[in-house]
Design a protein that fits this description.
By secondary structure, this protein is an alpha/beta fold. The chain contains eleven helices and 16 strands. The structure holds zinc ion.
């Protein structure tokens, strides 16, 4: 087994020789549709990674679910080590519908790779997989390293959240492979977010003949939208966005039903409690008599809050990145990720360690091809230093 600088150099050399293989694997998985609700597709991406791990002698196991993508776990064991594992996290689902990969397959133009999920975050999965393979090939890991690849992050990880929490709680540190910022920075803090479905019930009546018998769910929803948006406090980092509305039956009927999808964002766990209470009050109070409402939580991301341990980890990563030729800082973002779940169980977590990307969730989303190998090297060095307690 190799150790220290020698191990780092061997691992980084191994990675440097594999850009072509990394891109080939990335092309394969980008060209498999894997929207969050497309379980078959998300699992097909998982099968491809399971095959990759098998080819590199790394054992895998699955946690199966009925509705969303299964969770794939690969573990590079370290016999004789009593260290807790380092956890490399990532998700295989994308925000794109079925058929997107056919319409917009993987391609590289001017050093940028395009295709559904290329940066968010199939590029990060490829990096995690190759880091594990490099550590295995060079027999370099002083402690166990686990890669977890889940399938429902874009919708709040309804199936994977407890699995992530369990793996993170057992780990000494978690590195999440979401795309690096367009600036090249990684993510040291994230907002928490809650997705709600708000339903308002009213009473249908002919709006000409018996208007007074009706109760408009649309009218009530309008009041609620104004009240919900008023909870936004930009300075405190709290935002409320009613992103979609739907409702009504016909132009001459008082609306018996209306619904909206609402996105709440906040920075601290304390803000979450106050925000949820305020939303509950707005939903419970009816301005228009004869209407009532309820909400269902569709997604619940916890914030990634920096801790003294995660700040030390940040310093380790920055140095590891510098030795891989990258200048990297930590950045705060309003976007949510699974990193909030690992951080919330007390495991120091860094996010945005995948290849550098931009224009998230849009068809112009890209990944900087030249960042693939250096980001993998930086991660590998950080994992080795983290395990060595440096
Ligand atoms: Zn993502």
């Amino acid at each position: 087994m190799t150790r220290g600088t020698e191990a780092e150099e061997a691992v980084c050399r191994w990675l440097a020789e594999r850009e072509g293989e990394m891109l080939a694997l990335l092309e394969e998985v980008v060209n498999i549709d894997s929207g969050s609700y497309d379980k078959a597709g998300v699992d097909a991406v998982g099968e491809r990674f399971a095959r990759f791990f098998a080819d590199h002698g790394i054992p895998t196991s699955w946690r199966r679910g009925d509705t969303y993508g299964d969770a794939l776990r690969a573990e590079l064991a370290s016999p004789g080590s009593n260290l807790k594992p380092v956890l490399l996290m990532g998700h295989r689902d994308t925000v794109f519908p079925k058929g997107e990969a056919g319409r917009r397959p993987f391609r590289i133009v001017d050093g940028r790779a395009y295709g559904p999920g290329v940066a968010d975050m199939k590029g990060g999965l490829v990096v995690n997989a190759f880091v594990l393979a490099a550590l295995a090939a060079q027999d370099a890991a002083p402690g166990p390293v686990v890669a977890l690849m889940t399938g429902d992050e874009e919708i709040g990880s309804p199936f994977s959240r407890p699995i992530i929490e369990e793996e993170a709680a057992a780990a000494r540190a978690a590195f999440n492979g979401e795309p690096g910022r367009a600036s090249g920075n990684i993510v040291s803090g994230r907002k928490g977010g809650i997705f709600l479905n708000l339903e308002v019930f009213g009473k249908a009546a002919h709006s000409g003949a018996n208007f007074a018998d009706g109760a408009s769910a649309i009218g009530e929803l309008a009041h609620k939208i104004v009240a919900l948006h008023a909870l936004t406090d930009l300075e405190a980092g709290i935002t409320v966005n009613v992103g979609t509305v739907r409702g009504g039956q016909s132009v001459n009927t008082t609306a018996p039903f209306a619904e909206a999808e609402v996105d709440l964002r906040y920075v601290t766990p304390q803000q979450r409690a106050a925000l949820v209470t305020a939303v509950e009050r707005i939903v419970a109070a009816s301005t228009i008599p004869g209407t009532h409402a309820r909400f269902t939580t569709r997604g619940d991301f916890l914030p990634l809050v920096a801790s003294p341990e995660s700040e030390r980890m940040m310093a380790t990563y920055k140095a590891a990145a510098a030795d891989s030729g990258l200048h990297v800082d930590g950045e705060f973002t309003g976007g949510c990720s699974d990193a909030g779940f690992s951080a919330a169980v007390g495991t120091p977590t860094l996010c945005g360690l995948g290849p550098v990307g931009g224009k998230a969730h849009s068809p112009e989303k890209y990944m900087e091809v030249a960042s693939l190998v250096p980001r993998a090297q930086a991660l590998a060095r950080a994992v080795l230093r983290c395990e060595a307690g440096r």
